[in-house]
Design a protein that fits this description.
heterodimer, A: Mth169, Chain: A, B: alpha/beta, Rossmann fold
């Protein structure tokens, strides 16, 4: 099973990276953008997707500062466009 | 007394830490893959970029074989000092509360900071003077990920329990740390982490010597036989 783990800063924690991106967009004419947050994408092939939450809790994320979302995708080994 | 300084792949401050420790006792390097703490009285988890800091700072180093021993050592009351990356590793390992986030400036910061000892009731600050007007410690920082964070309730608990041992002096907070926190200890007060580098501030040849207070405190504590 191919899976994606989307990791983002926990809501309410200051995210200077997101803020920097948010400030940069209007300079290019992209107005009307708010609440930008920059996170991390981890893609992996996993034999037992049932163990993904534990992997997220113990290594892939720090639950104190990050939220995550597990997305299971088709096509092992390939990354959908 | 005997200090042990851990060397991970990617550590870079372990030699300075060892030299600082040697001013106060014997000091050996402990390899990350070993499980033998060699009978040390105190463990120093040094600065650097352990295991490349891949994924998150300190995230992978916490699973090093030596860290299992450090966790047991700490649980038995042994003294553990985490400096910079070592602080990050101890937070990831759950030996210290909270986490370190990227500096609000998103920049690597390398400069001298002024610190105030908040509490001298610990093995790491007992040699410090907190009588007003208490002298500040001048110690360098060098990090990108040093913004101390703990959830509100946890932060209130830390403050109430006097676990914040070091604060950046007013106006000195370099990285956006909550409550100007530069260093915290665990509830049992035998594990301490700080972002500034006391091991780089021990020789008058190279600048202020505020870092001596931390190592001298550990020595005095151990000499008093207070070690469990």
């Amino acid at each position: 099973m191919r899976a994606r783990v989307l990791v983002k800063p926990k809501a309410g924690i200051l995210d200077p990276q997101g803020q920097a991106v948010e400030r940069a967009l209007p300079a290019l004419g992209f107005t009307g953008v708010r609440n930008v947050h920059v996170g991390r994408l981890i893609e992996l092939d996993v034999e037992d997707p049932g163990r993904l939450p534990e992997m997220c809790q113990r290594l892939l994320t720090n639950p104190l500062i990050e939220d995550y979302e597990i997305v299971e995708t088709d096509g092992a080994g390939s990354s959908p466009a | 007394m005997k200090f042990g300084v851990i060397r991970f792949p990617g550590s870079c401050d372990e030699v300075d830490a060892q030299l600082a420790c040697k001013r106060f006792g014997e000091a050996v390097i402990l390899w990350h893959g070993d499980r033998d703490l060699q009978g040390v009285d105190a463990v120093v988890v040094p600065g650097g970029f352990s295991y490349g800091d891949y994924l998150r700072v300190g995230a992978i180093a916490r699973f090093a074989p030596v860290m299992e021993e450090v966790a047991e050592f700490a649980a038995a009351g042994g003294l553990v000092l985490g400096i910079c990356n070592g602080f990050q590793v101890l937070c990831e390992a759950g030996l210290l509360p909270g986490a370190l986030l990227p500096n609000t400036s998103l920049r690597f910061i390398f400069r001298q900071v002024e610190l105030e000892i908040v509490s001298s009731e610990s093995p790491f600050t007992c040699a410090g003077d907190t009588t007003p007007p208490a002298p500040r410690l001048s110690i360098p920082i060098k990090h990108t990920t040093g913004r101390y964070y703990a959830p509100d309730a946890e932060l209130a608990r830390l403050e109430a329990a006097d676990q914040v041992l070091l604060r950046y002096a007013p106006g000195e907070n370099p990285n956006g740390s909550l409550n100007d926190i530069a260093g915290v200890c665990n509830e049992a007060r035998n594990v301490f982490g700080l972002m500034p580098h006391p091991e780089h501030a021990v020789d008058p040849l190279t600048g202020p010597t505020g870092g001596l207070t931390i190592f001298e405190s550990i020595r005095a504590h151990v000499a008093d036989g207070a070690l469990v």
